[in-house]
Amino acid sequence: MLYDLLAAPFVDYQFMRRALVGALALALAGSPLGVFLVLRRMSLAGDALSHAILPGAAMGYLVAGLSLPAMTLGGLAAGLVVALASGAAARFSALREDASLAAFYLVSLALGVTIVSLKGSNVDLLHVLFGSALALDDATLLLLAGVSTLTLFCLAIFHRALVADTLDPVFLRRASRFGEFVPFLFLGLVVLNLVAGFHALGTLMAVGLIMLPAAAAKLWTRDLSAALPLAGCLGALASYVGLALSFYSGAPAGPAIILAAGVVYFVSLCLGRAGGLIRNLRPRRHFEG
Amino acid sequence: MTLHDAPKIILENVTLGYDRRPAVHHVSGEIAPGDLLAVCGPNGGGKSTFLKGLAGLIAPMGGRILRGGAKAGAFAHLPQATEIDRTFPICIQDFIALGGLRRKGLFSGFSGDEDARVGQAIDAIGLSGLEARGLETLSGGQMQRALFARLVVEDCAVILLDEPFGAIDAATTLDLLALIAAWRAEGRTVIAALHEFDIVRQAFPKTLLLAREAIFWGDTAQALSPENLKKAKDMAAAYDARARLCERDEAEHADAV
């Protein structure tokens, strides 16, 4: 009975296994990355970047059709240009990062929509918007796994840099020549994960699997070394439950995964031990000293 | 004996500011190795800007700052605590250990001698027992102690302090002043921006009184004389929304060098 419910879809159908592998790869690296997005107060910046990728991917599609390399490169180029340009604008102009990011992504989104409407076949664009988790081919899976591996390595190698840059960027720039580049490295990783994510979940959904488990993990622990793996695990859980849900209900896989992540988030929001609603509204009895 | 080769710092006709508005206007002077210099003056007088200029965080709009071969980033700088994200989940021990970044870089491991430095700093600063506490649970005074402990671990020859005693109680202030005195005994240069004149008179032999322009730079008792303080107050009040371009000669000074 439990076997039928939880394991059978993935044992019986190859496309379900592929979807699971793709979503797990995305969750295991993207969700810990999301923890840093939350800590840097850039939750909405992730959303903005995901919008910025859309026109790039659409241009790749217009040039070469539904081709993995073209759409990946297009999305990557657009995302990196927006991330770099807004990062540089924030660094060297009077605007703060959120304002410059909003400005750049709005312009790139408008540009993308304009280009698409010049030569439009909207059906395939649904793939870009909402992904096709149930139709992942080998090349796409390799891309997802590769990005996931690279991201986890970078998070490990640059952990001290990311922590120092989030906590006290002015100090880091004084103490290390490398400090200037940390924000760009971080935004680069975010863009890479969003681009990998849009093949499985679509540009509009990918950011959900990065942000929601991260925000949920933050509600359970104040310890960063616990929050990072916890976010990855919650993301993996949401991927698994979401895919099983979509199998039985017939709901599209991408939104089902994000909905599952949403449930995880709302449960954490209510029950979380580190700042959840119930803890905050009904605090436990205070200590003696 | 000096343990630290603090460089001689020379300011040549330095103008610092933001958006073409000078906050520090045509200041020249020298800071000898091992000096203990207070920077005083009204709010908006350019104290923080002066320290940021010395720390290399902003480039001079005019003139130049000579650091005796030391790189701009080589000076330790205590910012006003509000510039740090205190909600970040990190314990005091790790926060203070980040002071070792200059020696260890971003990638190599923190070995036993770094741990020892951090332990000594925590003991010296009076934070023992709080090592595992998160940054956001600290009081204002404890946070200031943690920042000073990070400076101890940084171990720089020149230390810039931006309002180190703002909103700090008397006991903490005394402890921090003792630390500053110890730094001076070790031959380090300490430059602090502060408002507490009684502390300045007690602990700082030299003072720069700054109200956009240098009103006085030298002996503390003279710098904080009633006439000089009145001058500083009058200077600060004058902000001209339609200021004309400053015509004061940069060339004249350049010839003299």
Report on the structure:
The complex is a heterodimer of chains A (289) and B (257). Helices cover 81% and strands 0% of the residues of chain A. Chain A is an all-alpha fold and 289 residues long. Chain A has one domain (2-273): ABC transporter involved in vitamin B12 uptake, BtuC (Orthogonal Bundle), CATH 1.10.3470. Chain A is globular and about 65 Å long. Chain A starts with a helix and ends in an 8-residue tail after the last helix. The mean pLDDT of chain A is 85. By secondary structure, chain B is α/β, with parallel strands linked by helices. Chain B has two domains: 1-75 and 158-257, P-loop containing nucleotide triphosphate hydrolases (Rossmann fold), CATH 3.40.50.300; 81-155, no CATH class. In chain B, 36% of the residues lie in helices and 22% in strands. In chain B, a hairpin with a 2-residue loop joins β1 and β2. In chain B, α4 (112-125) packs across α5 (140-154). At the A-B interface, α9 and α10 of A face loops of B.
Labels describing this entry:
heterodimer; A: 289 residues; mainly alpha; 0% strand; B: alpha/beta; Rossmann fold; six-stranded mixed sheet
Which of globular, elongated, flat, extended, rod-shaped describes the shape of chain A? globular
- The tally of strands of chain B reads 9
Order of SSEs of chain B, N→C?
EEEHEEHHHHEHEHEEHHH
CATH architectural group of the largest domain in chain B: 3-Layer(aba) Sandwich
Helical fraction of chain B equals 25-40%
Task: Identify the CATH class of the largest domain in chain B.
Answer: Alpha Beta
Question: What do the pLDDT scores of chain A average to?
Answer: 85
Spell the H/E element sequence of chain A: HHHHHHHHHHHHHHH
Known CATH architecture of chain A: Orthogonal Bundle
Portion in beta strands of chain A: under 5%
- Helix content estimate of chain A: over 70%
Q: How do the strands line up in the largest sheet of chain B?
A: 5-6-7-3-8-9
> Which ranges of chain B are low-confidence, i.e. pLDDT below 50, for 5 or more consecutive residues?
253-257
What's the number of domains of chain A?
1
Could you name the CATH topology of the largest domain in chain B?
A: Rossmann fold
